[in-house]
UniProtKB/TrEMBL annotation:
InterPro entries: ATPase_NBD, Carb_kinase_FGGY, FGGY_C, FGGY_Carb_Kinase, FGGY_N. The keyword Glycoprotein does not apply. SUPFAM superfamilies: Actin-like ATPase domain. This is Gluconokinase. Residues 9-244 form the Carbohydrate kinase FGGY N-terminal domain.
Length: 477
């Protein structure tokens, strides 16, 4: 039975911050004031580099725990849970010393895979839930081996867990984000490892969801309140966010909007529906998978445009623009597309501009374009699961913009529920580890008929312009 007393320590390993926060064990809600954050800044380069300093990241996270202890927040902790960014990788030498910084998903460096004539990319995708894309270890590892004399490889969450407990292990959820997991069996996929050029003993061992470790003696002395507290394996941030938002079964799609956006459905791994080529699939835990589509432009698009237009806080929502009414159409490809599409970054498009248009019109068009992108994924998931899915909305972008919440609801043409809790990743990691089923608990939105009709009229124009943008990106290189 899930615990209903005590408190939980959640570690959230993001790309822009590492955080530690304390949650109630009853419903995984945050304890007010019990949050510490270490800001993380990636280092970018002209050749596609995007790296995180591993030492700074880990020491910053440990400092967050020191801060919580100083505030008296590490007493009464019953479990330590973790959510983490997917897809990161670090190359290690034969003494387990890092040879590279952390390479997160935004880094574009990789090499083309060497494939046999009998390679079946659709069968590979159906089995692993991934494509042979630079996001995944199938292409990262051969590139790293061409750069350094690596003996083994691990992801950021694996190395954080090892630093805390001394155990080099990973979860089935984190392993699925590497693109090297056989989803049905929950073990490394032989063909994926052959393409990557590694044996399974050079990667972290996969442990079951119920596995727990304990803090090393170093950290038990540093944080006496955590002596003997079990440490659970990490959950991938997308899976954790889905569960934490309230989308934890096959009747509900969760739409999360942060820096990027995604729409996903959690469902049993047994008898899972056949995976369409356009969607990815990862694991939540030993029994569940998550299927969905991700989008590169969301909160980052809003932040970029409000900065470019120099909009003050009062004008960072297009409140004067009716949803679906703007003459301007925006295709939000500023950061490109996720696989299997291959639209590169720098492909954003605005069409229909006139001298009458304002910053609010441009902002409304951008948020509408992002909403239509998410809607494409939602409609595919409706078809996959044979029903019109219920929708829950969550994430920082959702929390920050009432206009965007209404726009998404009108674009989906169905009621939505807004998750009241902003900390969906930490909450979801706790729910996965301890078997909780959190309720979204927020406002319920109903679509406005006039807005739904305007978006429906806009959709074919948007789709036609989107096709032109995809074609132009290929032709212009």
């Amino acid at each position: 039975m899930p615990r209903t007393d005590g408190r939980l320590l959640a570690l959230d390993l993001g790309t822009s911050s590492a955080r530690a926060l304390v949650l109630s064990a009853a419903d995984a809600s945050p304890i007010p004031g019990a949050l510490a954050r270490h800001k993380v800044s990636a280092r970018y380069g002209a050749a596609g580099e995007a790296t995180l300093d591993l030492h700074d990241y880990v020491e910053g996270l440990l400092g967050c725990l020191d801060e919580l202890q100083a505030g008296g927040h590490l007493e009464g902790i019953t479990d330590i849970v973790m959510s983490s960014q997917w897809h990161s990788i670090v190359a290690l030498d034969n003494r387990d010393r890092p040879l590279t910084p952390v390479i997160p998903w935004v880094d574009t460096r990789s090499v083309e895979p060497k494939l046999g004539a009998d390679f079946d990319e659709h069968a590979f995708h159906a089995r692993t839930g991934a494509w042979l894309h630079r996001l995944y270890w199938t292409r990262r590892i051969p590139w790293l081996m061409s750069e350094v004399q690596a003996d083994s490889f691990a992801g950021l969450p694996d190395l954080v867990l090892e630093r805390l407990t001394g155990a080099r292990v990973t979860s089935v959820s984190i392993a699925s984000g590497t693109g090297t997991l056989d989803l049905a069996r929950g073990v490394y996929d032989e063909e994926a490892l052959e393409i990557a050029g590694v044996k399974p003993d050079r990667l972290p061992s996969i442990v079951p969801t119920g596995w727990t470790g304990s803090l090393s003696s170093e950290f038990e002395r540093r944080w006496p309140g955590l002596v003997g507290v079990p440490v659970h394996p990490p959950t991938g941030d997308g899976a954790a966010s889905n569960v934490g938002t309230g989308g934890y079964d096959e009747t509900t799609a969760a739409v999360t909007v942060g820096t990027s956006a995604a729409v996903r459905v959690v469902h049993p791994i047994d008898n899972a529906p056949e995976l369409p080529w356009e969607l990815w699939r990862y694991r939540v835990d030993d029994k569940r998978a998550v299927t969905g589509m991700a989008f590169s432009a969301a909160g980052n698009l809003h932040a970029w445009l409000t900065g470019v237009l120099q909009l003050d806080k009062e004008h960072q929502e297009p409140t004067g623009v009716e949803i679906g009414s703007s003459r301007v159409i925006a295709v939000p490809f500023q950061a490109g597309t996720r696989p299997p599409e291959t639209v590169p970054s720098g492909s954003g498009l605005y069409f229909g501009l006139s001298f009458d248009d304002t910053g609010a019109d441009l902002l409304a068009a951008s948020l509408q374009g992002a909403s239509l992108e998410v809607d494409r994924g939602l409609r595919m998931l409706d078809g996959l699961f044979g029903r019109q899915l219920s929708v829950v909305l969550g994430g920082g972008g959702i929390d920050a913009s009432a206009w965007w919440r209404r726009c998404l609801t009108a674009t989906f043409a169905r009621p939505t529920t807004v998750c009241a809790e902003a900390e969906v990743g930490a909450r979801g990691a706790a729910a996965v580890a301890l078997g909780l089923s959190p309720d979204p608990g927020g406002e319920h939105l109903r679509p406005v008929d006039a807005e739904v009709n305007r978006v429906a009229a806009l959709r074919p124009r948007y789709s036609a312009l989107r096709e032109l943008a995809v074609k132009a990106s290929k032709e212009l290189g």
